[in-house]
Write a structure and sequence with these properties.
This protein is α/β, with parallel strands linked by helices. The chain has one domain: Metallo-dependent phosphatases (Purple Acid Phosphatase, chain A, domain 2, 4-Layer Sandwich), CATH 3.60.21.10. The protein contains seven helices and 13 strands. It has a six-stranded mixed sheet with strand order 4-5-7-9-11-10, with helices on one face. The termini are far apart. The structure holds fe (ii) ion (2 copies).
Length: about 270
């Protein structure tokens, strides 16, 4: 049991890819560009409008935390981050508790300018408090504890796997061993589970087995993640489990998570923005 609380969660808005420099032809940015512009729904218009609607709705709801689980951009480039930041600026400059976790498209390539832009974006989005090097870390209030992990790093072309390193596994082990009665939430870009691991060999999370076990054993009450653009929730009868927010701009919806302290239950709901 514990006190009731509310979290608003969204993910994967994917600021459309930009042709920033000819250097992008030399790495996987060219694939990301074509993928975003031709194949994905998130590359088609209405971007600013839907983020604006999401922020309006967030301001109307009362939440203990607003959580953004990454893929702010498409190819991890400076100009994409600049536009994305302008869209989210009202949220960042508000007094609402807000956290940003990086996605694999935010840490897309090893290019130095891209890496620097991703570092700057992460720090700005987290109001100067959390840099990429600060992950994993604990965010907490008097009601719950959220374990923020970074499961992303630049990958070679055609691969979109996530990685959970030993430092993060050790962090989760230690944090999940604490017995202070607070609910434990975890935020990661990559889901810990995959219903079709063989189909998604090039997209799954490596090193996440132990974290998945912590979730299955209930040591993590709820995992909030993104990466998969179609929303899904795998929850038990008390609402514990894994929530994939889906793409904010593709599915045009926020996810609202309410924990009812009296019933000791999580309730996960989609909030359409149209
Ligand atoms: Fe994504
Ligand atoms: Fe992703």
């Amino acid at each position: 049991m514990g006190e009731s609380f509310r979290v608003l969660h969204f993910s994967d808005p994917h600021e459309p890819a930009k042709f920033e420099s000819f250097r992008m032809l030399l790495d996987k940015r060219v694939i990301g560009f074509l993928n975003n512009r031709i194949l994905r729904r998130t590359g088609r218009g209405g971007h600013e409008e839907i983020i604006g609607k999401a922020i309006e709705r967030i301001f109307r709801e009362k939440a203990d935390l607003v959580l953004f689980t990454g893929d702010a951009v498409s190819c991890g480039q400076k100009t994409e981050f600049e536009t994305a930041y302008e869209h989210f600026r009202p949220l960042v400059e508000s007094t609402l508790p807000f956290l940003y976790i990086p996605g694999n498209h935010d840490l897309y390539v090893k290019d130095r300018d891209c890496q620097r832009a991703a570092e700057g974006f992460c720090l700005k989005m987290n109001r100067g408090k959390y840099a990429l090097t600060d992950f994993p870390f604990v965010w907490e209030n008097e009601k719950f504890r959220l374990l923020a992990v970074n499961t992303c790093r630049p990958m070679p072309p055609l691969l979109s796997n996530g990685f959970m390193d030993e430092k993060t596994r050790e962090f989760l082990r230690t944090q999940c061993g604490k017995k202070d009665g607070k609910k434990v939430l975890c935020a990661s870009h990559f889901p810990f589970s995959d219903p079709h691991p063989l189909l998604h060999l090039l997209h799954t999370l490596h090193g996440g087995k132990e974290a998945q076990t912590l979730l299955e054993e209930g040591k993590i009450d709820l995992l909030l993640c993104g990466h998969v653009h179609k929303p899904r929730a795998r929850l038990d009868e008390r609402g514990r489990g894994e929530v994939v927010a889906g793409s904010l701009t593709g599915c045009r919806a926020l996810t609202r998570i309410d924990y009812d302290g009296e019933k000791d239950r999580f309730c996960v709901e989609r909030l359409p923005l149209d």
